[in-house]
Amino acid sequence: MKYVLLTFLTISVLGSIRAQQLPKGTPVGSKWVISVAFNAKDSQIVTVFKDNKTANVWDAQTDKLLYTLRGHTNSIISASYNATGSQIVTSSSDSTARIWDARTGELIHTLQGHNSSVNSAAYNNTGSQIVTASTRGGAKIWDASTGALLKTLEHKGSVRSAQYNTTGTQIVTASADSKTRIWDARSGELLHTLEGHTTWVESAVYNATGSQIVTASWDGTAKVWDVETGKLLHSLRHPPQVNSAHFNATGNQIVTASRNSTVKIWDAFTGKLLKVLRGHYFEIESGVNNVKVIRPPRRNYTHLMRGSGRRGIISATYNAKGNYIISTGTDFRTIIWDVQTRKPLIFLYFCQPIGREDKINRIDFN
Q: What is the pLDDT of residue 335?
């Protein structure tokens, strides 16, 4: 039986949190949200639904659908804003990334040059460049103002993700060839190849200062690396498969999410395990601090529950102020988390069989 996600959550600049039914006729498909991103002022949110060729942009204060980004010819995989919130970049299975005007929704540039799915697209800190990661053909650096291809970062295997450091001087790429690479963002020169994983590296991210990188691999480990030397600092065991690893805002802790249905929190400086979060029944695709997953009931699909993710959390992101996290899972639920208390603020499971008339329309609280 197919289900439709009826709501999304917003966090306004005034701090209120809303759950809102998607307007009738919104092209959301019959899948779950896979990407959610705030702009810099928390005034807009862009959402992407699984297996959908469009992305929706919402006013975070009024809950109004501003426009729908149309133009991709295959499913959109990710969407994100530049630092000022003036542009949105989307990546897609149609082998392109597209740059959009965040105020009008108009298409600015189509980034063409990959010959397979573009798995991620990210701006640098100034918004002047974009790096894209592709299943075949490596990663590419683009001029965000002209759409011109600047450089190609060659890989043998599929590139799962590519990210700039916070100053925009480096790029880290995670690859299916079991290696992670650090690049000079200006010259495209390969600075270090991080070798130590034995299979697919799903993600690689910098800490806030850019001094360390944490990688997540399907070999059951996350690894912490020194950016300057490329030296392995710590290996964090979380078998059988680590789907994601992230630093917290200060860079002193790391959280890993594993297919074994647990979340682990680590000391980033010593590699010591600090806490194991148990009670999960399904594999976790992505994790943030203190995210819990609990099996949803089989029939009561509007039951309020702790956690996110029947199979996992599809997308988790901070708002610009860093005081909230919004996450969405394959169980069709969207959850808002308070970063300071590390507790979920609301647990919503907004999904129902197609054709039912009784709908959850709106929930408001401050």
A: 58
